């Protein structure tokens, strides 16, 4: 009976901690959404409030009344994020597939080289990358932000480790015996097995690409090419008056697609926890 009471007390403690952490995680997003409905004066007087106000439409009018178009920025961010995510996930999975399934002489040195690239901060190569893009006249081109995502060493490492644990090589060999081509086996056998890992990495890749400000800020100089993070950063630069309500409105619109992507892919992440392998 004593052990049972101790176990119940421990479970209550765990639930209380989980609820507390959930509330702390949701609170910043709740404050952001509430502040999107409040005026700048109300935000300056009381920065934190959990009660919405009546200035939602006025903040939206201020946001859309700037020199740039938020709807266009939303579309630009979506094009870049979806394109870069698709390239990163597909080609990283293909690279991991080559490292796991094929046996070739330089396989281990190649994987070591990928691991070494992971240690290099992206800011170190940003100047050289900008000079290269400028010399080939690809500034103000979304491809300059989409195509480099093909080389994603961290994602390759994750996909390789996941593939080693969940991909039976007997399935690939059986498909080859049945006459299946390599691309067909990869697209129709490997990718469905890798759905949980692909969903997890797609969320991370989409969030990183959507929130990316540094590279788009230096590569995109035309207003019709601006992304949502660039537009939100420009809202803070008003020399006459900073409209905090409009800023929170822009932040809310910026975060909204991230929630949608997470909820669409979360079921695959949960499925990946229970996935222990393929049973024959």
List keywords for this structure.
MetI-like fold; 0% strand; mainly alpha; 280 residues; single chain; 73% helix; disordered C terminus
Helix content: over 70%
Radius of gyration: 24 Å
Low confidence ranges: 276-280
The main sheet comes to: none
What class would the helix/strand composition place it in?
Answer: mainly alpha
Strand content: under 5%
* Overall average residue pLDDT: 82
Total of helices: 14
CATH C-level class is: Mainly Alpha
Q: Enter the CATH topology name.
A: MetI-like fold
CATH architecture: Orthogonal Bundle
Integer tally of domains:
1
CATH superfamily: MetI-like
**Cα shape:** globular
Number of DSSP strand runs: 0
Q: Give the assembly state of these chains.
A: single chain
Termini distance? 43 Å
Q: Order of SSEs, N→C?
A: HHHHHHHHHHHHHH
Can you describe what's shown?
With 280 residues, this protein is mostly helical. The protein has a single domain, classed as MetI-like (MetI-like fold), CATH 1.10.3720.10. 73% of the residues lie in helices and 0% in strands. It contains 14 helices and no strands. The protein has helices spanning 2-35, 40-45, 56-64, 70-101, 107-118, 126-135, 143-146, 153-166, 169-177, 182-193, 195-211, 214-219, 228-235, 244-274. Helix 1 (2-35) runs antiparallel to helix 14 (244-274). The radius of gyration is 24 Å and the shape is globular. Mean pLDDT is 82; it is low at 276-280.
């Amino acid at each position: 009976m004593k052990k049972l009471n101790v176990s119940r007390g421990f479970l209550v403690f765990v639930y209380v901690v989980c609820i507390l952490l959930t509330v702390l995680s949701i609170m910043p997003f709740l404050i952001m959404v509430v502040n999107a409905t409040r005026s700048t004066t109300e935000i300056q007087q009381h920065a934190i409030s959990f009660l919405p106000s009546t200035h939602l439409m006025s903040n939206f009018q201020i946001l859309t009344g700037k020199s740039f178009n938020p709807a266009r920025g939303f579309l630009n961010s979506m094009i870049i994020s979806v394109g870069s995510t698709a390239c990163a996930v597909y080609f990283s999975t293909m690279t991991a597939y080559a490292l796991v399934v094929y046996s070739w002489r330089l396989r281990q040195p190649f994987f070591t080289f990928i691991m070494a690239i992971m240690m290099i901060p992206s800011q170190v190569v940003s100047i050289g990358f900008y000079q290269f893009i400028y010399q080939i006249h690809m500034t103000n081109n979304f491809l300059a932000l989409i195509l480099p995502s093909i080389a994603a060493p961290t994602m390759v490492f994750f996909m390789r480790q996941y593939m080693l644990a969940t991909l039976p090589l007997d399935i690939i060999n059986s498909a080859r015996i049945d006459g299946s081509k390599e691309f067909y086996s990869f697209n129709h056998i490997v990718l469905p097995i890798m759905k949980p890992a692909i969903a997890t990495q797609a969320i991370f890749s989409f969030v990183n690409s959507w929130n990316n400000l540094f590279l788009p800020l230096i590569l995109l100089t035309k207003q019709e090419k601006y992304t949502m993070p660039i537009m939100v950063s420009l809202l803070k630069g008003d020399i006459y008056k900073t409209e905090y309500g409009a800023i929170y409105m822009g932040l809310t619109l910026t975060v909204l697609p991230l929630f949608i992507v997470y909820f669409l892919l979360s079921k695959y992440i949960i499925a990946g926890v229970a996935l222990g392998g393929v049973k024959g």
